[in-house]
Amino acid sequence: MLGTMILAEGTNGFLGHTALIVGFAACLFGAFALVAATVLHNPRLLRSVQTYGMFALAGSVLAVVVMEKALITRDWSLAYVQKVGSYDTPALFNFTALWSALEGSILLWLLLLAMYTAIVLRRYRTRMADPIVAWAMVTMFVVTAFFFFLALGPTDVFRAAGAPDFARCCGGPNPLLQNHVLVLFHPPILYLGYVGFTVPFAFAIAALVTGRVGEGWLVETRRWALFAWGFLTLGIILGGWWSYEVLGWGGVWGWDPVENASLLPWLTGTAYIHSVMVQERRGMLRVWNISLLLATFSLTILGTFLTRSGVINSVHAFSDGTIGPYLLGAFGVVVAVSLGLIAWRGDRLRSPGAIDSPLSREGAFLANNVVFTLFAFVILLGTVFPLIVEAKDDRRIAVGSPFFDTMTQPIGLVLLFLMAVAPALPWRKASGELLRDRLFWPAWGGAGALGFSVLVGATGFTPLLAFALAGFAAGAALRQLVLATRRQGYRGLLGRTNGGMVVHLGIILIAVALAASNSYTRAGEFSMTEGDTVEFSGHTFTLLEVSSFETSNSVGIKAQVSIDGGQAYAPAISKYTATGMDVATPSVKTGFTGDIYLTLENGSTPSTGEAKLKIFIKPMIVWMWVGGMLCGVGTLLAAFPGKHRRRPTDAVSAPIPLDEPTLDEPKQVADV
Amino acid sequence: MSRAASLKRWPGWVLLLLVVAGFLAFGSTRDAGARTPEERVEEISKQLACPVCNGETVYESRNTSSTSIRAEIKAQVTSTDATDDEIIAYIVQQFGADTQLLPKASGFESLVWVLPLVALVCAGVGLFFAFRRWQRIADTVPDDADRALVEAALAAETEPEPEPEPEAES
Amino acid sequence: MSDDSPVPFSPAPPSSTGSEVNRRRIAPIIVLVVAAVLGGLFWVLAASDSGSPDEVGLVDSPLIGRAAPSVRSTTIDDAPFDLARRKGSWVVINFFNSTCVPCKAEHPALVEFVAQQATFDDGAEFYTFVQPPDDDDDIRAFFAERGGNWPVVRDDDGRINVAFGVSQVPETFIIDPDGVVRVRWAGEINADILSQLVQQQRVAYGA
Asked: What is d(CA A222, CA A277) in angstroms, rounded to the nearest whole number?
């Protein structure tokens, strides 16, 4: 019977299933071997663990390769290829069709997870006998095994299908995923971030299980957490950029439930990478750090569930999945295990130390934790609230951008303020005098930013306040960088603090771009015929030509519009023949101070030369992408090792001499 | 005391606050210019959910029903003097309450507004008590047992630290 | 791996100062509260089903029991159309477009229904509303191919669709002789159901 089953599948299906089974088994064996080795104190069992890791990686790589091959060769014997493959899709989008629907996205997740597992295994191969490493690997194997199970069972990625009915199938991926190259970058980078948080999570579980909740495991995983965070940040920014370039309504963020699901782990992850510094220095906030780390991973799973279960409506959602209950179950297990472990080891987690004063860097990081947690709570509440109301009253409401915008603005302002003040705060305790001294020039930077904004014509209290605080925060970050480079040359840009300041600058740029584009976007709609010129917001737009065009899988209308008498831009609107779906392709003229964003609306006719054109003037958008790049650069800089490894007996901070005549130059003190 | 230091005391800061307040007052009361009809339509349609799509607003969605709603909003904006709220109320009336993206401030739905405030208050109270407890701990004086512990740890250092190069104020 | 045993930080002394005891009592409470909240979240997520708004059948409408919106437009044959002037007879209106799959599927049923109603003295009147991107030629071709001959009214700016709260085609409304909307049906309909609904409403109206 197994034989006939195998014969019924094509080669690809068989290979794919085999690869997944091998991977699944390897993970299970690896986990068992590690548990047995640790519990029975038998190091000989550890020898095979590396091999199991390699097999798991090989399984996932082979599965991905087989699926890509099936897509490229248009092997219709696989149900997934019938779902997202097509004869007419261009090569690039056929390749990225791998992750364009539910089953394939699980494969991508699996590939990255197995890759991380293999890398961690290799890095710690000499230390497998250490229980913390062993339990961390067990956790990683278990999580990987779960995803292998998902790919085999509930979603059965390599499910065989009958003969293709070309009237209903084989139309290719969703047209929105077929018209921009960012589809190649955004999902993999985003997943690198999501999946990356599995590693510090595994170590956190290991620390709790073994009871060694001191600082050792933290130092080990600091760079993993940082890289995962960096990828997640980059992935989210790329998602915003992709929305902007493709969706035609000129926005970068829509508070869509799936977008929120990606933001939630980012928020707790950001809180974690800050608060972890307090634990390294003072051994404090251990419960916070463990909770934040476990919450980040749980939110990753919750996000995966929300995206794939169809529970919440979203343009991004992969609906029609039977995978929902399994992911929800996984979320429940992760949360239960986390809470249980924290409750069990609670007494060891408590630290005898104290945060002496709210006005200190520890105090600022604690405030940071609280603000980010509140932020995450608000977004989670808004996202699931429609479900709560539906469960209680059986009616549907919608919670959208008006709610989230109202809630986010004050929180964003508070965060900008914290970004401004915290880098200047010393550890342990600050005096008002010290702060007055250190924050003086940054504060004038804020005033300068505010003055400049007012002079160029900005209005409105909230955006102006945001610009002022952004200038303040930028001043504080630059001050730190200037002092460090003055003292250490180029090394003043490396290391956690300095790299962190570069990331802060990136975030500030993003905040400014968001504030400006949300408050000062201008929009106008014009019906034009060929040869017409309109003037809008200080620019002239001339409609040169309206024409039709055809690609391998769509027909469309394109308009050539010349901006300010210069180069022509061509917004278009296409109808994808397979699905009948209309997709608008906006055309953007990017500028230093703002973008001119053109879209073509329905109702344009090439035969009469009429076009309905919508014009957006969006200030400062390009700074979002520049800020995103800076975040990436800063993350790399922050990953460099500092000059010293900090030892537990190092002084936490230098004593601050308050009777010195001048406080302009911080004193040269040892190991501040 | 150097001039720089004296500047940084209260005269410099007072001047700063005056400058900031002045700019803010000027900027926030300045007229931003009238909104074009398209901008009004945009603002209104951002507050409405597309009736059939997956979670898009009427503003974003390219669906036929959303396009019709936008056309309706535009007609009302340009030819009547209905306010934004009246137009929203009309659309909500025709399509149902789940079209409006802002939960009401009454009944069960108000929880979505109330809970964050409650959480904020709890956070504030929690921080207050935490700092109070820490203050009590910080006020303790190290005793001989503590000192002995630190001596032992320092003595366990194998060699003196290399030439210290300060990491700037971190 | 650097040593992370509790030296040099001395472990918390087991002496029970007031604050220590309070902490030991508060911690389990916090864990319980967090567990309860997360449990609630879990339950809500488990209890909700796929929120897809694709419904077929009798649908509630804010218009039911109220006067139909005023509709003044032209048919594709350029005859004027005013819904208010149809008072005195039962009116069935249908919103569709020529490409949607359920619209094509239900068209024979509508042809049958209209033919049936034509045999009665006070049979219901039937009108179809169309909007861009369908144009007059598409509609004429559709009817030529599939039969049926009743007035098709233009809704060029979609305002009539919005006035009736039409979210997805096809949708069918039944309006009584006083101009009050009685029934809204979303999705594909068949002749039996439609005549049954009209009959039910007649009975209720007559009573």
From this structure: 10
